[in-house]
Amino acid sequence: MDRDDDLDELQVALTTTPPSELASLLDRVVRGMGSPGTDAIELVFNRWSDVVGGVLATKTRPVSLERATLVLQADDPAVVSHVKWLEQDLLTRLDELLGPGRVTAVEVRVARPGRPSRRA
Question: Is the pLDDT assigned to residue 38 strictly greater than 80?
Answer without folding.
Answer: no
